[in-house]
Amino acid sequence: MKKTLKKYQPYLWLASFAIFTLISFLVGFQPGKDISINFKQFFIEMISFIPFLFIIIGLFDVWFPKAKIEKHIGQESGIKGIVLVILLAMLQAGPLYGAFPVAYILYKKGASIKNIFIYLGAFSCLKIPMLGVEMGYLGWKFTLVRTLVSLPLFIGIGYFMEYRLKDKNFIIYDIKNKP
Amino acid sequence: MINNAIIFISVSIILTLVSFFIDKKKTLAGLKRGLMMFKNIAIPFLNILILVSLLIYIVPPKIIQEYLGAKSGALGLAIAAVVGSIALIPAFISYPIASMLIKQGASYTVVATFMTTLMMVGIVTLPLEIKYFGKKVAILRNVLNFIIAVIIGLLVGLIL
Q1: What pTM did the predictor assign?
Q2: What is the predicted pLDDT for the residue at A44?
Q3: What is the pLDDT of residue A132?
Q4: What is the mean pLDDT for each group of 10 consecutive residues in chain A (179 residues)?
């Protein structure tokens, strides 16, 4: 019982909204009608580009496999190191906490403190899938300006973190293998 | 909006064709993977759209303009930064919210700050981050990112 409930829980919200809309139209409840018209517009906006964005993301994923690239990135230093970690971060998707395990891998492979934090910065604001939705919803100008403004700032954070933590025994823990 | 669709549709078609000519198998795998990812995000995305449809009906534009608009000043910035830091909405599905806010009169500064803190600062996930980096580093990273998110918001607002 509990299991089935959990399985259908994501659809609960959707199902109640569908019922609410249906009833609104049946009894002529104006606010309900208005809300469903809003929803229809948002839905059309979404369906007109998001599936295509995912086609692009899917193709990217097979042509530039993250795991393989991860293997080759790590110890490079200087500009090349920075560019590589940023490119690696751009290929990722998902929430920031998904980046911590990769940060651990980079750390294990001897990436500098600076590059680890630049990776986290790039992960949070330059992921390609995210840039895609952002352009779709807020326009390419917004994306361009936000990206160009953010880039130097999180690279700066990388340098600052390295300066602060250099002689302080910086460690990233592997929480999977922790006792 | 229609322009957007045209751009995304044509880019995806061109990429698919190019990819298909180079490697059929890889292309099919890519399309499949994309579809799978879309399937995974579809329900949460629809839920957010329901939420936005409700919000846009309940919250009058006047209130959004007042608290998150160009004249909201430090208050708008603070609301955006704090809510963005606490909320645990994936950035990916929060863009409809951002777009709705802008259409209803919120300023670019507020929206850029909200989106940036949403992406870079995580109060709710801080305990997890501490497990990886230790207390000091995790807190330092979040504080620094909070500060630069506000700077990013201000600069984006200034430029746009």
Answers
A1: 0.89
A2: 92
A3: 93
A4: 73 91 93 93 92 92 84 79 92 87 90 94 92 93 95 95 89 73
B107-123 in b/e form (b: 16+ CB < 10 A) is: bbbbbbbbbbbbbbbbb
- Computed over every residue of chain A, the mean pLDDT equals 89
Mean pLDDT within B80-87: 93
B141 close to B129: Cβ distance less than 8 angstroms: yes
Q: pLDDT band for position B3 (50/70/90)?
A: confident
CB < 8 Å from A in window 102-121 of B: 102, 108, 111-112, 115-116, 119-120
Cα angle: B2, vertex B3, B9; to 5 degrees: 90
CA atoms within 13 A on the CB side of A171: 8
* DSSP string over chain A: -HHHHHHHHHHHHHHHHHHHHHHHHHHT-HHHHHHHHHHHHHHHHHHTTHHHHHHHHHHHHHHS-HHHHHHH-SS--HHHHHHHHHHHHHT--S-GGGGHHHHHHHHHTT--HHHHHHHHHHHHHH-HHHHHHHHHHH-HHHHHHHHHHHHHHHHHHHHHHHHHHTTTT-----TTS--
Of the residues A7, A50, A167, the best mutation for testing chain B's interface (the one with the most B CB atoms within 10 Å of its CB) is: A50
Interface of B with A in 130-159 (CB under 8 A): 131-134, 137, 140-141, 144-145, 148, 151-152, 155-156, 159
Query: Among candidates B73, B118, B117, which has minimal Cα distance to B65?
Result: B73
pLDDT digits (tens, 9 = 90+) for A55-82: 999 999 899 888 778 777 777 778 888 9
SS3 call for B123: coil
